């Protein structure tokens, strides 16, 4: 599926999924799901509230307490999780086009990246279920101490609108694999693929009540989930502002575990001894404009050493025209629409701020394709940016690149670390000592060296400082969704 005609043939069900059934909000309220591609209405989506969260949590709790899922042998859960992954792949075209229509990303990436990554994540954690062992402590002969992992119980999950399938998979896959029940609240800006995932989970054999999806707005559905006294863990990806509120609500309620993957303002540092300048240029431009810049780990601060700044920018500007926004339903499009008019206006506001504060606009800076009814902004590059400027300090979440200069390693580390965020960073150098030294000095959860954003499910993802708490992906994610129990057995040996 990669054409406007095929998109028009899709029919979307906006009802939530609670206890294995598609249901309306108890109030009967709905909200319009509007496509950023062309301004068309895709569906009326259930506008759920606290009563619906209560119903979903009750279903999840009942499913957990009667062990219909947690009580299955790991090998059985594994088979179902892998079947779930296979169904995601089988329905990949529909999921990809739904994602495109719902949040604006190019369908080629929705299929190749989002669908494949979500399926791989579900499959990988399914495979891991029967390969993670418990422990025996090195106690004296008079005791046997077992250290076991148990599912935490009911897990609430709140995911953002920029990678709806991937962000959901990163959380529900390890949570479900560990034996928990889940209540997922997708963003109201992109709820449709989460609902389809719930349908596929049921088709795969995950029992009713184990995986529930409740749609709605943050204050009306997200807050009741984070505050719920019968939710044992809340996992959130989104803005730092809301993440702070999640931690407060976790403390105000039952002191539930709170795991938050939050914002970023990632530095991408190119030294004069960069081993391949063209590769560095391609990575810098491709990574900031991928997904329309709507990525928490986007390298939105580009630091260029003084002696290569002009040459780097000359090469970079030649690549920008290829990222001209276009209809994301077309297979040739590599940059689509921003998620909605609110986000588009936010991005345009940051661009105006860059102009006002004295940065030099090298490319872009305008809304385009206004005749489509969609939300499109040109790929934008500012040079002459200083660390005090708003576009250098705040997360824009759009296709806007801020270019800064530096003299030496000490200078750039100081500038790069002068941020409340610490999600990712990039370092380009042919000096091995410099690469290691700068990587260690950078306060970031991931440091890329001579590439940017290469990734794998086997490595953890998360950040330092106000970029969040906890890690998605890898076996480390099980730590978030399990409790560690010690069982100490006294042995009075007769021999």
Q: Would you kindly provide a written description of the structure presented here, covering whatever features stand out?
A:
With 495 residues, this protein is α/β, with parallel strands linked by helices. It has helices at residues 4-8, 50-65, 74-90, 92-103, 107-128, 164-177, 192-204, 218-227, 240-252, 277-289, 309-319, 341-356, 390-393, 409-417, 432-441, and strands spanning 16-18, 21-23, 30-34, 41-46, 135-136, 143-151, 154-158, 181-185, 211-213, 233-237, 257-261, 267-270, 301-305, 360-363, 367-368, 376-377, 380-383, 400-406, 421-422, 424-428, 446-449, 464-465, 468-469, 482-490. Strands 14-17-18-13-12-20-21 form a seven-stranded mixed beta sheet, with helices on both faces. Strands 9-8-7-10-11-23 form a six-stranded mixed beta sheet, with helices on both faces. Strand 3 (30-34) and strand 4 form a beta hairpin. Helix 3 (74-90) crosses helix 7 (192-204), helix 4 (92-103) packs across helix 5 (107-128) and helix 5 packs parallel to helix 6 (164-177). The longest helix is centred in the first third of the chain and has 22 residues, at 107-128. The chain is globular, with a radius of gyration of 23 Å.
């Amino acid at each position: 599926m990669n054409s406007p005609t095929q998109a028009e043939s899709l029919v979307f069900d906006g009802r939530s999924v609670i206890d294995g059934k598609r249901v309306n909000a108890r109030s009967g309220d709905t909200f319009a799901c509007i496509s950023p591609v062309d301004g068309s209405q895709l569906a009326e989506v259930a506008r759920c509230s606290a009563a619906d969260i209560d119903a979903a949590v009750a279903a999840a709790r009942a499913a957990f307490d009667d062990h219909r899922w947690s009580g299955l042998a790991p090998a059985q859960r594994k088979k179902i999780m892998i079947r779930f992954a296979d169904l995601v792949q089988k329905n990949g075209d529909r999921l990809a086009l739904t994602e495109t229509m719902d949040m604006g990303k190019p369908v080629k990436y929705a299929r190749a990246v989002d669908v494949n990554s979500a399926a791989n994540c579900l499959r990988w954690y399914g495979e891991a279920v029967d390969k993670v062992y418990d422990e025996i402590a090195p106690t004296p002969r008079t005791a046997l101490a077992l250290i076991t992992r148990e599912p935490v119980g009911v897990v609430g999950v709140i995911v953002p609108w920029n990678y709806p399938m991937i962000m959901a998979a990163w959380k529900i896959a390890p949570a479900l694999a560990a034996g928990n029940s889940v209540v997922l609240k997708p963003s109201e800006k992109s709820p449709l693929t989460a609902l389809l995932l719930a349908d596929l989970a049921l088709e795969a054999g995950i029992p009713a009540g184990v995986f529930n999806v409740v749609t709605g707005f943050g204050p009306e559905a997200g807050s009741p989930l984070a505050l719920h006294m019968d939710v044992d863990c809340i996992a959130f990806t989104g803005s730092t502002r809301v993440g702070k509120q999640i931690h407060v609500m976790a403390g105000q309620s039952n002191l539930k575990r709170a795991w938050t993957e939050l914002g970023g303002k990632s530095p991408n540092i190119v030294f004069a001894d960069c081993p391949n300048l063209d590769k560095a240029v391609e990575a810098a431009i491709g990574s900031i404009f991928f997904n329309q810049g709507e990525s928490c780990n986007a390298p939105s601060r580009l630091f260029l050493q003084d002696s290569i700044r002009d040459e780097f920018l000359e090469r970079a500007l030649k690549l920008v025209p290829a990222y001209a926004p276009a209809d994301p339903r077309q297979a040739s499009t590599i940059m689509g629409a921003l998620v909605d008019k609110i986000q588009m206006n936010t991005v345009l506001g940051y661009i105006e701020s860059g102009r006002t504060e004295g940065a030099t606009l090298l490319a872009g800076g305008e809304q385009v394709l206004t005749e489509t009814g969609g939300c499109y902004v040109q790929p934008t590059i500012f040079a002459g940016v200083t660390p005090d400027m708003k576009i250098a300090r705040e997360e824009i979440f759009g296709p806007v690149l801020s270019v800064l200069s530096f003299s030496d390693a000490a200078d750039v580390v100081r500038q790069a670390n002068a941020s409340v965020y610490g999600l990712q960073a990039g370092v380009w150098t042919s000096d091995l000592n410099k690469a290691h030294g700068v990587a260690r000095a950078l306060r970031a959860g991931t440091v890329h060296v001579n590439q940017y954003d290469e990734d794998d499910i086997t490595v953890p993802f998360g950040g330092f400082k106000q970029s969040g708490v906890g890690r998605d992906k890898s076996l480390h994610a099980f730590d978030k969704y399990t409790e560690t129990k010690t069982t100490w057995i006294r042995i009075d040996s007769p021999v």
